[in-house]
Amino acid sequence: MGSAFSSNAKGLSLRRIGSAAAIVCVALLLVIAGGVATLHLRENTPPVRGGVLVQDRGTTMRRVPRKMLLAEAVEPTTKAPSRKIHRASKRRPSFPRGVAHDTTDLEMEPSLAGDPEHRKKQQQREAVAAMAATPAKPKTKSLLAVPVGIKNKAAVDKLVSKFPAGDFAVMLFHYDGAVEQWGDLEWSARAVHVAAPGQTKWWFAKRFLHPDVVEEYDYVFVWDEDVEVDAFDPARYLDAVRREGLEGMVPVFSRAAWRCAWRMVQNDLVHGWGLDYRLGYCAQGDRAANVGVVDSEYVLHRGVPMIGGGGGKSAGRAAVRLRSFKEMQIFKRRWEEAAAEDESWTDPYAAQPATASSG
Protein backbone atom coordinates (compact mmCIF):
# COMPACT_ATOMS: atom_id res chain seq x y z
CA MET A 1 0.00 0.00 0.00
CA GLY A 2 2.51 2.63 1.16
CA SER A 3 5.58 3.75 -0.80
CA ALA A 4 8.85 5.27 0.38
CA PHE A 5 10.72 8.22 -1.08
CA SER A 6 14.24 9.31 -0.11
CA SER A 7 15.54 12.84 -0.58
CA ASN A 8 19.04 13.28 -1.98
CA ALA A 9 19.89 16.01 0.53
CA LYS A 10 19.75 14.16 3.84
CA GLY A 11 18.70 10.64 3.00
CA LEU A 12 15.38 11.15 4.69
CA SER A 13 12.45 8.86 3.99
CA LEU A 14 8.74 9.32 4.30
CA ARG A 15 6.20 6.54 4.10
CA ARG A 16 2.70 7.38 3.05
CA ILE A 17 0.17 6.35 5.65
CA GLY A 18 -3.52 6.65 5.06
CA SER A 19 -5.28 8.20 2.13
CA ALA A 20 -4.09 10.88 -0.26
CA ALA A 21 -6.62 13.32 1.16
CA ALA A 22 -5.16 12.99 4.64
CA ILE A 23 -1.66 13.63 3.34
CA VAL A 24 -2.61 16.81 1.51
CA CYS A 25 -4.12 18.24 4.72
CA VAL A 26 -1.21 17.43 7.06
CA ALA A 27 1.85 19.61 7.51
CA LEU A 28 4.71 17.33 8.55
CA LEU A 29 7.87 18.34 10.31
CA LEU A 30 10.78 15.94 10.79
CA VAL A 31 13.74 16.57 13.02
CA ILE A 32 16.66 14.47 11.82
CA ALA A 33 20.34 14.97 12.76
CA GLY A 34 19.83 18.58 13.69
CA GLY A 35 18.03 19.49 10.43
CA VAL A 36 14.34 20.09 9.79
CA ALA A 37 12.63 18.46 6.83
CA THR A 38 9.57 20.39 5.63
CA LEU A 39 6.88 19.31 3.26
CA HIS A 40 5.88 22.07 0.81
CA LEU A 41 2.38 21.74 -0.60
CA ARG A 42 0.54 24.49 -2.43
CA GLU A 43 -2.62 25.32 -0.58
CA ASN A 44 -5.89 24.41 -2.29
CA THR A 45 -4.01 22.58 -5.03
CA PRO A 46 -6.47 20.22 -6.65
CA PRO A 47 -5.33 16.69 -7.42
CA VAL A 48 -4.07 16.33 -10.96
CA ARG A 49 -3.87 13.35 -13.17
CA GLY A 50 -0.92 11.21 -12.20
CA GLY A 51 -0.10 12.99 -8.94
CA VAL A 52 -0.12 16.26 -7.01
CA LEU A 53 1.80 19.50 -7.52
CA VAL A 54 4.50 20.07 -4.91
CA GLN A 55 6.43 23.31 -4.47
CA ASP A 56 10.22 23.16 -4.08
CA ARG A 57 12.23 25.98 -2.54
CA GLY A 58 11.28 29.17 -4.30
CA THR A 59 8.48 29.02 -6.83
CA THR A 60 9.29 25.92 -8.84
CA MET A 61 6.41 23.49 -9.06
CA ARG A 62 6.96 19.78 -9.54
CA ARG A 63 4.53 16.95 -10.15
CA VAL A 64 4.93 14.11 -7.63
CA PRO A 65 3.02 10.80 -7.77
CA ARG A 66 0.23 10.43 -5.25
CA LYS A 67 2.01 7.56 -3.56
CA MET A 68 5.04 9.70 -2.80
CA LEU A 69 5.77 12.78 -0.75
CA LEU A 70 8.82 14.98 -1.16
CA ALA A 71 10.97 15.49 1.93
CA GLU A 72 13.36 18.41 1.74
CA ALA A 73 16.05 19.19 4.29
CA VAL A 74 16.47 22.81 5.36
CA GLU A 75 18.55 24.48 8.01
CA PRO A 76 16.78 24.81 11.36
CA THR A 77 15.86 28.31 12.48
CA THR A 78 16.56 27.49 16.10
CA LYS A 79 18.92 25.05 17.65
CA ALA A 80 17.22 21.81 18.59
CA PRO A 81 17.40 20.99 22.28
CA SER A 82 20.29 18.71 23.03
CA ARG A 83 19.54 15.28 24.36
CA LYS A 84 21.44 13.93 27.32
CA ILE A 85 23.72 11.09 26.30
CA HIS A 86 24.42 8.43 28.87
CA ARG A 87 27.86 7.07 28.17
CA ALA A 88 28.65 3.47 29.06
CA SER A 89 31.67 4.61 31.05
CA LYS A 90 29.41 6.48 33.47
CA ARG A 91 27.12 3.57 34.09
CA ARG A 92 27.44 1.34 37.06
CA PRO A 93 29.08 -2.05 36.40
CA SER A 94 26.60 -4.83 35.72
CA PHE A 95 28.26 -7.06 38.31
CA PRO A 96 31.23 -6.98 40.71
CA ARG A 97 34.56 -6.90 38.89
CA GLY A 98 35.99 -9.76 40.95
CA VAL A 99 33.49 -12.26 39.55
CA ALA A 100 34.50 -11.66 35.92
CA HIS A 101 36.45 -14.35 34.04
CA ASP A 102 37.99 -12.53 31.09
CA THR A 103 39.77 -15.58 29.68
CA THR A 104 39.09 -19.29 29.43
CA ASP A 105 40.83 -22.52 28.41
CA LEU A 106 40.21 -25.83 26.68
CA GLU A 107 40.52 -28.11 29.71
CA MET A 108 37.82 -30.75 29.99
CA GLU A 109 36.03 -31.58 33.24
CA PRO A 110 36.68 -35.17 34.40
CA SER A 111 33.21 -35.49 35.90
CA LEU A 112 29.90 -33.67 36.06
CA ALA A 113 29.71 -34.46 39.79
CA GLY A 114 32.10 -33.73 42.67
CA ASP A 115 33.76 -30.46 43.71
CA PRO A 116 33.22 -27.68 41.14
CA GLU A 117 36.33 -25.84 42.39
CA HIS A 118 38.69 -28.81 42.30
CA ARG A 119 40.93 -27.15 39.71
CA LYS A 120 41.18 -23.92 41.66
CA LYS A 121 42.03 -25.75 44.87
CA GLN A 122 44.60 -27.90 43.09
CA GLN A 123 46.28 -24.75 41.77
CA GLN A 124 46.34 -23.28 45.26
CA ARG A 125 47.94 -26.44 46.68
CA GLU A 126 50.57 -26.41 43.96
CA ALA A 127 51.32 -22.75 44.64
CA VAL A 128 51.79 -23.39 48.37
CA ALA A 129 54.02 -26.38 47.66
CA ALA A 130 56.10 -24.34 45.23
CA MET A 131 56.66 -21.63 47.83
CA ALA A 132 57.76 -24.16 50.44
CA ALA A 133 60.05 -26.09 48.11
CA THR A 134 63.30 -25.01 46.54
CA PRO A 135 62.92 -22.71 43.56
CA ALA A 136 61.83 -24.73 40.56
CA LYS A 137 60.65 -24.12 37.04
CA PRO A 138 56.96 -23.09 37.14
CA LYS A 139 54.49 -25.59 35.76
CA THR A 140 53.18 -24.43 32.39
CA LYS A 141 50.97 -25.89 29.69
CA SER A 142 50.75 -25.45 25.93
CA LEU A 143 48.17 -26.30 23.27
CA LEU A 144 48.46 -28.59 20.26
CA ALA A 145 45.81 -27.83 17.60
CA VAL A 146 45.71 -30.02 14.48
CA PRO A 147 43.30 -30.29 11.51
CA VAL A 148 42.69 -34.00 10.93
CA GLY A 149 40.93 -36.46 8.65
CA ILE A 150 40.17 -40.07 9.48
CA LYS A 151 42.32 -41.25 6.55
CA ASN A 152 45.42 -40.06 8.44
CA LYS A 153 44.39 -41.49 11.81
CA ALA A 154 47.57 -43.50 12.34
CA ALA A 155 49.84 -40.52 11.61
CA VAL A 156 47.83 -38.27 13.92
CA ASP A 157 47.96 -40.86 16.69
CA LYS A 158 51.74 -40.95 16.39
CA LEU A 159 51.92 -37.15 16.41
CA VAL A 160 49.66 -36.51 19.40
CA SER A 161 51.26 -39.32 21.44
CA LYS A 162 54.54 -37.38 21.34
CA PHE A 163 53.01 -34.56 23.40
CA PRO A 164 52.76 -35.40 27.13
CA ALA A 165 49.26 -35.07 28.57
CA GLY A 166 50.52 -33.14 31.59
CA ASP A 167 52.15 -30.47 29.45
CA PHE A 168 49.78 -30.16 26.47
CA ALA A 169 46.09 -29.76 25.80
CA VAL A 170 44.93 -31.20 22.47
CA MET A 171 42.33 -29.85 20.05
CA LEU A 172 41.43 -31.62 16.81
CA PHE A 173 39.74 -29.90 13.89
CA HIS A 174 37.86 -32.57 11.91
CA TYR A 175 37.67 -31.23 8.37
CA ASP A 176 35.94 -34.42 7.16
CA GLY A 177 33.30 -34.40 9.91
CA ALA A 178 34.36 -37.85 11.18
CA VAL A 179 34.59 -37.69 14.97
CA GLU A 180 33.28 -40.96 16.41
CA GLN A 181 36.00 -43.03 14.71
CA TRP A 182 38.68 -41.52 16.97
CA GLY A 183 37.18 -42.76 20.22
CA ASP A 184 39.38 -45.87 20.49
CA LEU A 185 42.63 -43.91 20.84
CA GLU A 186 44.00 -43.53 24.37
CA TRP A 187 44.25 -39.73 24.28
CA SER A 188 41.00 -39.06 22.39
CA ALA A 189 38.86 -38.65 25.50
CA ARG A 190 40.96 -35.74 26.77
CA ALA A 191 41.07 -33.97 23.40
CA VAL A 192 38.60 -31.31 22.31
CA HIS A 193 36.99 -32.29 18.99
CA VAL A 194 35.56 -29.69 16.60
CA ALA A 195 33.93 -30.79 13.34
CA ALA A 196 33.19 -28.63 10.30
CA PRO A 197 33.37 -30.56 7.01
CA GLY A 198 35.51 -29.09 4.24
CA GLN A 199 37.16 -26.30 6.25
CA THR A 200 40.85 -25.47 6.55
CA LYS A 201 43.32 -25.10 9.40
CA TRP A 202 43.20 -21.31 9.39
CA TRP A 203 39.39 -21.28 9.17
CA PHE A 204 39.27 -23.36 12.35
CA ALA A 205 42.01 -21.37 14.05
CA LYS A 206 40.33 -18.02 13.42
CA ARG A 207 37.04 -19.22 14.90
CA PHE A 208 38.07 -21.54 17.73
CA LEU A 209 41.49 -20.30 18.88
CA HIS A 210 40.58 -16.78 19.90
CA PRO A 211 43.43 -15.29 21.97
CA ASP A 212 41.21 -15.04 25.04
CA VAL A 213 40.46 -18.77 24.78
CA VAL A 214 44.11 -19.81 24.56
CA GLU A 215 45.40 -17.17 26.97
CA GLU A 216 46.14 -19.85 29.57
CA TYR A 217 48.65 -21.63 27.31
CA ASP A 218 52.26 -20.55 26.98
CA TYR A 219 52.59 -21.78 23.40
CA VAL A 220 50.13 -22.69 20.67
CA PHE A 221 51.19 -25.35 18.15
CA VAL A 222 49.09 -24.88 15.00
CA TRP A 223 50.31 -27.95 13.10
CA ASP A 224 49.27 -30.10 10.18
CA GLU A 225 48.38 -33.76 10.52
CA ASP A 226 51.20 -34.94 8.25
CA VAL A 227 54.09 -33.75 10.42
CA GLU A 228 56.45 -36.61 11.32
CA VAL A 229 57.90 -36.35 14.81
CA ASP A 230 60.36 -39.28 15.00
CA ALA A 231 63.24 -36.91 15.82
CA PHE A 232 61.20 -34.39 17.80
CA ASP A 233 60.80 -33.90 21.54
CA PRO A 234 58.31 -31.16 22.48
CA ALA A 235 59.83 -30.49 25.90
CA ARG A 236 63.37 -30.05 24.59
CA TYR A 237 62.05 -27.95 21.73
CA LEU A 238 60.24 -25.52 24.06
CA ASP A 239 63.29 -25.31 26.30
CA ALA A 240 65.28 -24.07 23.30
CA VAL A 241 62.53 -21.66 22.24
CA ARG A 242 62.25 -20.15 25.71
CA ARG A 243 66.00 -19.88 26.09
CA GLU A 244 66.50 -18.11 22.76
CA GLY A 245 63.25 -16.11 22.78
CA LEU A 246 62.09 -17.42 19.36
CA GLU A 247 59.11 -17.88 17.28
CA GLY A 248 59.31 -20.44 14.49
CA MET A 249 57.81 -22.70 11.83
CA VAL A 250 56.20 -25.34 11.76
CA PRO A 251 54.07 -22.65 13.36
CA VAL A 252 54.42 -22.45 17.13
CA PHE A 253 53.33 -19.19 18.70
CA SER A 254 53.96 -17.71 22.09
CA ARG A 255 50.87 -16.41 23.84
CA ALA A 256 51.61 -12.82 22.83
CA ALA A 257 52.60 -13.73 19.27
CA TRP A 258 49.39 -15.70 18.73
CA ARG A 259 47.27 -12.75 19.86
CA CYS A 260 48.97 -10.71 17.15
CA ALA A 261 48.84 -13.45 14.49
CA TRP A 262 45.17 -14.27 15.17
CA ARG A 263 44.19 -10.70 14.36
CA MET A 264 46.18 -10.89 11.14
CA VAL A 265 44.33 -14.02 9.94
CA GLN A 266 41.60 -12.96 7.51
CA ASN A 267 38.11 -14.39 7.98
CA ASP A 268 37.61 -15.11 4.29
CA LEU A 269 41.13 -16.17 3.26
CA VAL A 270 41.00 -19.72 4.57
CA HIS A 271 44.25 -21.12 3.16
CA GLY A 272 46.49 -18.63 4.95
CA TRP A 273 48.87 -18.13 2.02
CA GLY A 274 50.89 -14.97 2.47
CA LEU A 275 50.73 -15.02 6.26
CA ASP A 276 54.20 -16.51 6.57
CA TYR A 277 55.64 -13.42 4.91
CA ARG A 278 54.17 -11.22 7.65
CA LEU A 279 54.31 -13.31 10.82
CA GLY A 280 57.67 -11.74 11.64
CA TYR A 281 55.77 -8.59 12.58
CA CYS A 282 54.35 -10.58 15.51
CA ALA A 283 57.77 -11.52 16.90
CA GLN A 284 58.30 -10.17 20.39
CA GLY A 285 61.22 -7.99 19.47
CA ASP A 286 63.45 -7.80 16.41
CA ARG A 287 62.31 -10.41 13.91
CA ALA A 288 65.90 -10.67 12.65
CA ALA A 289 66.95 -11.89 16.09
CA ASN A 290 63.84 -13.53 17.57
CA VAL A 291 62.93 -15.90 14.75
CA GLY A 292 65.08 -18.94 14.18
CA VAL A 293 65.47 -22.65 13.48
CA VAL A 294 65.73 -25.16 16.33
CA ASP A 295 67.79 -27.71 14.41
CA SER A 296 68.30 -30.00 17.40
CA GLU A 297 64.57 -30.84 17.32
CA TYR A 298 63.35 -31.21 13.77
CA VAL A 299 60.23 -32.51 12.07
CA LEU A 300 59.44 -33.67 8.55
CA HIS A 301 56.48 -32.17 6.73
CA ARG A 302 55.31 -34.86 4.31
CA GLY A 303 53.04 -32.51 2.39
CA VAL A 304 50.06 -34.86 2.13
CA PRO A 305 47.06 -32.97 0.62
CA MET A 306 44.19 -32.79 3.11
CA ILE A 307 41.42 -31.13 1.11
CA GLY A 308 40.71 -30.84 -2.58
CA GLY A 309 40.22 -34.16 -4.30
CA GLY A 310 42.69 -36.46 -2.56
CA GLY A 311 45.97 -35.17 -3.96
CA GLY A 312 47.83 -35.85 -7.16
CA LYS A 313 46.85 -33.81 -10.21
CA SER A 314 43.13 -34.04 -9.66
CA ALA A 315 40.96 -31.16 -10.74
CA GLY A 316 39.90 -30.56 -7.15
CA ARG A 317 43.44 -30.14 -5.92
CA ALA A 318 44.33 -27.84 -8.80
CA ALA A 319 41.36 -25.63 -7.96
CA VAL A 320 42.40 -25.46 -4.31
CA ARG A 321 45.94 -24.41 -5.24
CA LEU A 322 44.58 -21.77 -7.61
CA ARG A 323 42.51 -20.26 -4.82
CA SER A 324 45.53 -20.41 -2.51
CA PHE A 325 47.55 -18.31 -4.95
CA LYS A 326 44.68 -15.87 -5.31
CA GLU A 327 44.41 -15.55 -1.54
CA MET A 328 48.12 -14.74 -1.30
CA GLN A 329 47.69 -11.93 -3.82
CA ILE A 330 44.60 -10.61 -2.03
CA PHE A 331 46.33 -10.64 1.35
CA LYS A 332 49.33 -8.79 -0.13
CA ARG A 333 47.00 -6.17 -1.63
CA ARG A 334 45.08 -5.73 1.65
CA TRP A 335 48.32 -5.29 3.57
CA GLU A 336 49.61 -2.65 1.17
CA GLU A 337 46.31 -0.76 1.17
CA ALA A 338 46.06 -0.85 4.97
CA ALA A 339 49.67 0.31 5.35
CA ALA A 340 49.03 3.23 3.01
CA GLU A 341 45.83 4.30 4.78
CA ASP A 342 47.09 3.98 8.38
CA GLU A 343 49.03 7.17 9.02
CA SER A 344 49.71 6.16 12.63
CA TRP A 345 51.68 3.03 11.61
CA THR A 346 55.28 2.97 10.48
CA ASP A 347 56.79 -0.19 9.03
CA PRO A 348 59.76 -1.04 11.27
CA TYR A 349 61.15 -3.36 8.59
CA ALA A 350 60.77 -1.11 5.57
CA ALA A 351 63.65 -1.46 3.14
CA GLN A 352 66.31 1.19 3.67
CA PRO A 353 67.14 3.30 0.61
CA ALA A 354 70.42 2.39 -1.03
CA THR A 355 73.33 4.79 -0.44
CA ALA A 356 76.76 5.14 -1.96
CA SER A 357 78.39 3.75 1.17
CA SER A 358 76.10 0.71 1.30
CA GLY A 359 77.21 -0.52 -2.10
From TrEMBL:
Could you confirm whether the keyword Transmembrane helix appears in this record? yes
Query: Does the keyword Cytoplasm belong to this entry?
Result: no
Instruction: Give positions of region: Disordered.
Output: 75-126, 337-359
Q: Which domain of life is it from?
A: Eukaryota
Q: Could you tell me where the Basic residues compositional bias lies?
A: 81-94
What Pfam families does the annotation carry?
DUF707 (PF05212)
Where, by residue number, does the polypeptide cross the bilayer? 20-41
The protein's matches in InterPro entries, at most eight in alphabetical order, are given as:
DUF707 (IPR007877)
Give the keywords, sorted.
Membrane, Transmembrane, Transmembrane helix
This chain belongs to which protein, by name? Uncharacterized protein
Q: Which organism is it from?
A: Panicum virgatum (Blackwell switchgrass)
